[in-house]
Amino acid sequence: MRIKKRLTISNILMLIIPVVIVLIIALIMSVPFSKAYENKFASERERDPNAYLIQGNLRPDMKNFKDKDDFAQLPEDLQKFLKPRGYNLIITYDGEIISSNITDKDKEAISIIGDDILFQSHSLVLEMNTTSLVKNSFKKDNKIVNIIAINSSYKPLKFDMKNEMSMFVISYIVIVFIISFIVVTVTNAILSSKLYKKLVVPLELLSYGAEQIKNGNLDFEMYYGGDDEFKQVCSDFDEMRLRLKDSIEMQLKYEENRKQLVVGISHDLRTPLTAIKGYVEGLRDGVANTPERQRKYLNTIYTKACDMDALVDSLFLFSKLDTGRFPFKFDIISIKNYLLNFYECAKNEFYGKDVEIIFESNCNNSIMVKLDQKEMNRVLLNILDNSMKYKAENKAFIRIRLCEKEDFVVIEISDNGRGVQEEELVKLFTSFYRGDVSRTKPNEGSGLGLAIAKHIVEAHDGEISAYNMQGLTIKITLPKNYNKIGSNN
């Protein structure tokens, strides 16, 4: 999952999850809070000697009362309810007091209110100063029944509904807020922790890679199994590591080749120079004291100078090819016609040198390649010349084969020589390699021929390689060209 998507989902979850949980908690908490508030309100109402509460309990079911004697038994039950609340009871029946437990203070309070209130036929609730009087009046068989409760020491219990509700709401909100804060903190911590792990792992991997590169170690591997933006970053980082490693290895290889080139140049120049110096000293010291000997010394000096000139030319050509500054002149030509012409020239070139050259082809004349004929001649002649130099028998047998494979043409030049050891095959195209460690056979060339051939073939977008098969075979692969004949590139 992409980091952008993961961050979006995480942020959404950080909002949704706490909100849902808070709503659930608020709903759950409302039940016990409401019940606690109701219990408190009921408890307060139970303790509150409110006159209307008293009046509600002074309403007996008149169906259960038939006469005066039945009303005379009512006070016992009522007094159990009234006494804890500070009320005393008076019951009158048809203008007669049939039950009373009021005190003198109660009588004084009634006298203030008016004694006639005891026998009047109407219900009322009266709270005056410290007196609370509750009266229920009934008719039974045309008789007036009054049930009166009086409290002459009345102190009402104040229950501030608005304040209590405010306290309830505030307490509820505070508790829900605290729980919500905890839930949000825990949720964010969990989600942030998961997101942090997703971010810190690749960052630590990149940090590790940078540390390894800083310490010069390029042999580690950067593998990240996630499927997000860091996957591409880690992949690019690892590709950078591989390219840096290849670059350093190539630089080391170039440095090694440069050293070998310097050593090779020094050796191959020293050998003819030493010979020239020796023959010149022989001439100067009079060792060559006959015209024939002097002519021989001079011819040898000339030959060695020509060898040095050829070596310098090869070095100059190799240098231009190696730096990519060699001016090729490409033509699009028929590869079969080109090789037939080269074959005829090669037979004339090597005529009388104990060599047999044959040409085989399964291509037709319409197969075109992009070719610098002069430089490709240099490559092929160098290969033929090597086959002659390293022949194993008195007579060299060389076969030139041309075939096509899909979008390529393949040129193979095989000889019947002694071949090359398998571990040495890859070195054939290295500068100054001759398969001769001592390099004491200058007649076998400078060791630059196949290195030059490799550069020329690669400039043709081709490949050159070698393998052993009853001798040595050099294989050149060139891409076909489908442009018009004779067009230049």
TrEMBL record:
GO terms for cellular component: plasma membrane. The chain crosses the membrane at residues 12-33, 169-191. It holds the Pfam family HisKA. Its EC number is 2.7.13.3. It is found in: Cell membrane. Keywords: ATP-binding, Cell membrane, Kinase, Membrane, Nucleotide-binding, Phosphoprotein, Transferase, Transmembrane, Transmembrane helix, Two-component regulatory system. One of its GO terms (molecular function) is ATP binding. It catalyses: ATP + protein L-histidine = ADP + protein N-phospho-L-histidine. Residues 197-249 form the HAMP domain. It is a multi-pass membrane protein. Residues 264-482 form the Histidine kinase domain. InterPro entries: HAMP_dom (IPR003660), HATPase_C_sf (IPR036890), HATPase_dom (IPR003594), His_kinase_dom (IPR005467), HisK_dim/P_dom (IPR003661), HisK_dim/P_sf (IPR036097), HssS/ArlS-like (IPR050398), Sig_transdc_His_kin-like_C (IPR004358). This is histidine kinase. The lineage of its organism: Bacteria, Bacillati, Bacillota, Clostridia, Eubacteriales. The gene is yycG_6.
